[in-house]
Amino acid sequence: MEGSNQHIRMKIFNYSVYLLVMTTMLLFIACNNKEEEHSGHNQQTEIAKDSNMKEMNEKDNANMDMNNMGSDSGNHTAHNEMEGMKMNDANDMRDTTAGETYWNSLPTNRTVISAQKVIAPVEGNMDFAFSGNGYITFDWRRNRKVPVRIGGRIERLYVKYNYQYVRKGEKILELYSPEINTYIEEFLYVNSTNDSILQNKARQKLLLLGLSATQIKQVEQTGLAPFTISIYSPFEGYVLFNPSGAAGMNKEGNASAGMGSGMNAGTDASPSIAPSGLPDNSIREGMYVSKDQTLFWINDFQEVWGIVAFTKENEKYIRKGLPVTVTSELFPEKPFQTSIQLMEQVYQDEQKFSQARVYLPNTAGILKQNSLITATVSIPVKSLMIPVGSVYYLGKIAIVWVRTGVTKEGSNVFQSRVVRIGHRDSNMVEILEGLNANEAIAKDAGYLADSESIIKY
C-alpha cells in the first residue's frame, strides 16, 4: 500500500510540472503576437498619417500655385538665402573656434593675446642724435721746451707744481754754474781791453748761454761774476712736467696737482722719462742738471683738445670730418661748432675702446683743463623707424611683438620676432631687418613680457 501511494504522488508532481511549463510557453507566445500586432498597427497609423499629410500638402501647393505663381519663387529664393546664411554662420563659428583653439594652444612665452594698441612702422627722414662724454686737455702740438743751456745746480726753483701758470720773462729758477762763471770772468777780462771784436764775441757767447742783455749790463756795471744766474721763462703758459701725461685724467679720475707727478692717462706704468733720461718727478732744488737738459714744457693753452668717448653702439658711425656740437659744463649756454679730427684706438685698464678728438679754440682762456664736455652728433637717416618703446631687448637680441591675428572678442594676437636695429635716439629706433612697413606691432613691448619668462623667438 505504501509503495502504491508513493507512485501516485510522483505522477501527480510530474503532471503539475508539465502544466506549468506549457502555461509559461503559451503566455510567452501570446505576448509576442500582441507586440507584433501593436507594431503593425502603429506602422499602418504612421503610413496613414503620412498619406494624409501628403495629400494636404499637395492640395495646399496646388492652391498656392494657382493663386500666386511668382510669390512661390521669391519665397523659395529667400529660403535658400536663409539656409546659406545659417551654413556660413556655422562655418565662421567653426573657423573662429578653430582659430581660438590654435592661438590658445601656442606657447605663452612666444605668443601673447592682449588688447594693447598697435602701431605701424614709419618710413621717412629723421635726424638721429646721440651724445658722448669727454674732457678738455692740452694740445700736445703747442708744447714748448724749457731747457737749461749750461750745467749746474739748482739753488732756487720757483716752479713748484704741475700746471702752474707762468708769464714770459718770469723768473723760474736760479742756477749755480761754475762753467758760466768762468765765461763771465773771461767777458770781464776782455771788456777791460780795447779789442772790440773780442768784446763782442764774449758778449755773444753769454747771450747764447741764456743770459739776458740786462744781466750782462749788470755784470759790466758791477765788474763781478754773480754767485747764481737767474733763468727766465721764454714762453707764457702752463707748466707741464710730463707732456705725454697731460692728455687725460689719472686712474682715480683726478688731475695730479703735485709738481712732477704728471698725468699718466690712467695707466699703471712707471713715471714717464724725459728725453734727457731724467724722471719727470725728480726736479727739485739742490739737484744738478746737465747742459741742454729739458726742465719742463710750457703750453699756452690757446687751442685745446676735446677727448670724447661714445658708446660701442654709436662709435661705428663716428668718422673724421663729422660735424659735432660741443657743450662745456662751465658755460652750457655757449656751444662750440666743430668737427671730428681724429678717431684713435685706446687700450686702457685691460679694455680696448675708441675715442674721438676735436680741436677747440681757447684764446680767451675760458676752457679749463679736465673740465667736462658733451659732444652731440646728428646723422640724417632715411629708413623704417618705430618708437623706442616698441623694441624689447633680450641681451644682444632685439625683438618686437608683431600682430598675427585678432580674436572674436577683438583682442590682438602678438608673436615675438627678432629685428636688427640701426640708429637709435631717445624717441625712435631704426629698423634694418625683420619688419615690413605693412605690419602692425605692439606699441609698448615691455608690457607683453614677464620678467620671469624666457621669451622664445
TrEMBL record:
Record-annotated CusB-like three alpha-helical bundle domain positions: 185-223
Any Pfam family the entry gives: CzcB_C
Coiled-coil regions listed: none
Transmembrane among keywords: yes
A GO term for molecular function: transition metal ion binding
InterPro entries attached to this UniProt entry: 3HB_CusB, BSH_CusB, CzcB_C, MFP_Cation_Efflux
Keyword annotations: Membrane, Transmembrane, Transmembrane helix, Transport
Cellular component, GO annotation: outer membrane-bounded periplasmic space
Region of interest (Disordered), residue spans: 60-80
Extent of Polar residues compositional bias: 64-77
Ranges where the CzcB-like C-terminal circularly permuted SH3-like domain occurs: 411-445
Protein name: Efflux RND transporter periplasmic adaptor subunit
